[in-house]
Design goal:
By secondary structure, this protein is an alpha+beta fold. It contains 13 helices and 12 strands. The chain starts with a helix and ends in a 6-residue tail after the last strand.
Length: 530
């Protein structure tokens, strides 16, 4: 960017800042002054409505008051709404609407606005101008007193559109005048700088460019003894010294170039070797870390599985026997209603314990999946049909987005059905007061490192409270649960995670506290699917 352009921009900036400052302070002063006068004017209009009433009967004369406010609105086009309120005769309770007119429906003004209550409480006229520029509306309330007694209040809303447009027009006119003055000042200063500074500097710049191209015999004529003349004289001296130094540096540069080429070759060879070793070390560390995590998880799952199978077997048999005896007791015709209800409560608790034991056995003895072509959409619809009564009971809104062209997956129908039902039940448990359950199936792109063509994705989302960041890393661990006692075993997500991993897929979780959670189940796509 040329110096002249920079100077012009600086001048424009200075003049612009000065003009903006003047405009800002002028606008603030005008705004306060003019708006203050306007508020006083409309406040006087509202006070006049109450001042014309000399008796309480005048305030309660609905017909006369309606004619009066309609006449007032005809004389004041900016008056949008006006309402009269009367206090109850006993002086207690909320103000009562006597009459209102304007563009607003009466039900909104049936109850006295807060501004009216404040005016009555303080016994003085008040206004509300918050958001004036955005709403173009001012609200005013004034108490009505008759013979020194507070009997009611007047409420009005005025449109400031015409007033605001007039202010904007005045501001535009003032800004135009300031801009014209600023442009004249900038133009005058630029003309002075062009003849006294820019032209001599341009001649010096041309000499500098010639020297830069290698013409070391270039010189600049010295005119005058001012700063630019001194600069030209010193420039000529500098060019002479550069010419001498350049000849000496040419010889030294050739020697350094030869040494540099030799050193650069050695550095590149060493760097390439070090880079290769670093890549190999990173791959080794990654494999070692993955193996250690998998080994630790497998060891924990093995111990937990053995313990779960032992506990489930030891508890399951007595529970089965107890359940049988309870069923025999229920068949006793002499059993009273109260005792029969208690037996049902006991039997319900035994069924709950049996389900927990069944989860433990499933976790401990999960069979290998049988891979067959499977329609993921049909499986999701089957799960939703099974859980539809519970969805309706919990007032959950279902948003079903299934891709009709979704290819089939190679999976175990029963195990995947269990995973989908488990994730949907967890989503409903996260919304005890109701919410939105979104179930979506789609084909997504695979990462570049995958050799297959894509993934089949199933997303199950809720609008619950979300998962805390400190719990997110543990939700797939066996027996970890954030549910209340008795609501879960903490095995559902662990079973789902292991099932999908045995299918060669992934389970991803995306959760933000306060906004809900989304579980994404990914199945590997088949060759040639997309």
């Amino acid at each position: 960017m040329r110096l002249s352009v920079k100077v012009s921009l600086v001048l424009v900036l200075i003049v612009g800042l000065a003009a903006a400052s003047v405009d800002y302070f002028d606008r603030q002063y005008s705004k306060r002054f003019i708006q203050g006068n306007y508020l006083q004017e409309i406040m006087a209009v509202v006070r006049q409505v109450g001042a014309e009433m000399t008796a309480l009967s005048d305030l309660r004369d609905r017909t006369a008051r309606e004619l009066e406010i309609n006449k007032l609105r005809a004389n004041r086009p900016d008056l949008l709404d006006v309402a009269l309120y009367a206090l109850p005769e006993d002086g207690s309770g909320q103000p009562i609407l006597v009459v209102n007119a304007g563009i607003t429906d009466s039900p909104r003004l049936e109850q006295a606005p807060v501004l009216v209550t404040q005016a009555l409480l303080n016994n003085q006229s008040i206004s509300e101008v918050g958001g004036w520029e955005a709403t173009h509306r001012v609200k005013v309330a004034s108490p009505i007193t008759i013979d020194g007694r507070l009997v009611g209040a007047t409420y009005a809303e005025f449109s400031t559109s015409l007033f605001d447009e007039l202010q904007r027009s005045q501001r535009r006119l003032e800004v135009t005048r300031i801009l014209i003055k600023g442009l004249v000042i900038v133009l005058a200063i630029n003309l002075f700088l062009y003849f006294r500074v820019h032209r001599p500097v341009r001649a010096l710049l041309s000499a500098v460019e010639a020297v830069a191209r290698g013409k070391l015999l270039t010189s600049v004529p010295v005119r005058g003894r001012d700063e630019i003349g001194q600069l030209a004289e010193r420039f000529n001296l500098m060019v002479e010294r550069i010419r001498v130094a350049t000849e000496e540096n040419t010889q030294l540069y050739e020697k350094l170039r030869l040494a540099h080429d030799s050193l650069q070759l050695r550095v590149e060879e060493a760097t390439a070797e070090l880079r290769q070793k670093n890549r190999e070390l990173a791959r080794t560390n990654e494999l070692l870390s993955t193996s250690q995590r998998e080994a630790a998880r497998a060891q924990r799952l093995s111990v937990i599985g053995q313990l779960a199978a032992t506990v489930a077997h030891q508890i399951g048999t007595p529970l089965t026997a107890v359940s049988g005896h309870l069923q025999l007791l229920e068949e006793d015709p002499q059993l009273g209603p109260e005792a029969r209800n208690r037996l049902k409560i006991v039997e319900t608790q035994i069924e709950r314990q049996s389900r927990i034991i069944q989860d433990l056995l499933i976790y401990a003895r999960k069979p290998d999946p049988v891979f067959l072509p499977m329609d993921l959409n049909a499986c999701l619809e089957e799960c939703l049909a099974l859980l539809r009564p519970e969805i309706d009971r919990r007032r959950v809104v279902l948003n079903l987005l299934l891709d009709p062209a979704l290819p089939k997956a190679q999976a175990d129908q029963q195990q995947i059905h269990e995973v989908f039902c488990n994730l949907i039940e967890n989503a409903m448990d996260a919304m005890p007061e109701g919410g939105t359950l979104t179930v979506q199936s789609q084909a997504v792109e695979a990462p570049p490192t995958e050799k297959i063509n894509g993934w089949l994705a199933v997303d199950i989302s809720d609008t619950g409270p979300g998962i805390a960041p400190e719990d997110r890393a543990q939700i797939f661990q066996p027996f970890f649960t954030t549910k209340k006692a008795g609501r879960g075993t903490g095995l559902g997500l662990s079973i789902a995670f292991d099932t999908i991993r045995s299918h060669g897929g992934q389970v991803l979780v995306d959760s933000e506290p306060g906004k809900g959670t989304r579980f994404r189940v990914l199945f590997r796509g088949s060759e040639g699917v997309y």
